[in-house]
Every structure is written in structure tokens, then in C-alpha cells.
Amino acid sequence: MNVLAFDASGPTGSVAVIKDGQLRFEKTINTGLNHSVTLLPMIDEAFKATNLQVKDCDLLATVIGPGSFTGVRIGVATLQGLAAPWDIPCVGVNALEAYQTGLTNEQKLICPIRDARARQVYGACFQKGVRLMKDCIQKIDDYLAMLPETEEGYLFVGDGVSMFEKYLRERLGEKANFAPMHLNLLKAGVVGQLAIQYQDKKVSGNKILPLYLRLPQAERERLRKAGKDA
């Protein structure tokens, strides 16, 4: 099975190719939200490195959120554009689930967080691969209040860690633990791994939709103005 997986949902962009269960190519760059410029060239590089073409893929996967509205749209649109001509099956992967995938042997509660701006995070909570909390978008204090109590402590991971690490240490003391820095970058190899795991849920590309936990900024602004005009 040939799998192309990629992520454009946050500050990092990542592309991977998995062939017959082996990771044959993976590239991750952390240059900010310029995925409209970098994603397709990275995919082209992946195909050249593995001697594949789009039509050779048996499965496509991308992160559908939660994350940057623009980045998620770029990822989903790219997936749909690649899949349509060849009717390639697709899987959408949850970013917060992807972050905790490599930490399922931990006794601590795994707390993936992504920066949602205005001191908000996209967050969830897992333990040994089991989801304990639904995805949410909350102020950091409200998110912490929602976490289950534990004697084992919390292990935070994700691109929100760099913004909130100091605050989390102050709030939680010794219960605040942090994954190795490289795990805070969401990598496409993990996205591909989850896509294979969930391939029984594969669908056509046009059925892969963004996972938004709130309305986009433009829509929120439109509703705010409509309320004022009412």
C-alpha cells in the first residue's frame, strides 16, 4: 500500500510517504503559515524521492483540524484536488489525536494543546490512547479546569506548549510535564500511520471536511455586525 500523508494545519508543514508499511519519505518544515507556497512543492519532492506519482497512491491523508483555519483549508483542498482525478480513497486525521499517538505508553494524562490565539487553546486529554475529553477550544485556565484529576501528572504536547509552558509550570507545579521538543511538531508520518489504522473509515476526497471548533473569523465578524444592525 502506498500512502501519501501531509499536514498544513499549524505552523509546521509536513509531508510523508509510506510504502508497504515503511516510512520512505518524511519532511517537516517550521517556517510559519505559508503552506500555500510550500505544500505542493514538498509533495512533489516526496513523489520524486520515492519514484511515485499521485495515481500510484492507494490512500491519501491530511489533518482536518483543529488548527489554523487557513492551513486546514489548504490541506483539505489539496487532498481533494489530488484525490479527485484518480478517485483515491482518503482519511481525515484529528490533529490532537495525532499529537498523542507516540505517547500511549505514558502513565500521565496526555494533554495535546494548540495555540488558538487570545490565550485560548485547542485541547483534549488522553490516557494510554483512550480519549478522556472531547476536543475543545477554551481559555487556558478553563481548559485546565476541565482536565480530569490525576496523581500521575499531566504531559503537555503540541505547538501550544511554547506559548504556555511557563504558565503551566506556575499553575500546576510538579504535575506539569512536557513532551520532548521534537514531538511538538506534528509530523506527517504519524498522520499516515493513523490513516492506515483507520483505513476502514476511508471515503472519497469530497467527503473530507475541515474540523472547526468555532466559526472562522470572517463569519464571526459578519454575525457580530449583523447583531449590531438588528
Order of helices and strands: EEEHEHEHEEEHEHEHH
CATH superfamily of the largest domain: ATPase, nucleotide binding domain
Q: What would you call the shape?
A: globular
Gap between N and C termini: 56 Å
Q: Total strand count, please?
A: 10
What portion of residues belong to β-strands?
25-35%
Describe this structure in words.
Strands 3-2-1-4-5 form a five-stranded mixed sheet, sandwiched between helices. The protein has a five-stranded mixed sheet with strand order 8-7-6-9-10. The chain contains seven helices and ten strands. It has helices spanning 35-50, 69-83, 95-100, 140-146, 161-172, 188-197, 217-229; strands at residues 2-7, 13-19, 22-29, 59-65, 90-94, 109-115, 120-127, 130-139, 154-157, 176-178. The chain folds into two domains: 2-94 and 185-216, ATPase, nucleotide binding domain (Nucleotidyltransferase, domain 5), CATH 3.30.420; 97-183, Nucleotidyltransferase, domain 5 (2-Layer Sandwich). It is 34% helix and 28% strand. With 230 residues, it is an alpha/beta fold.
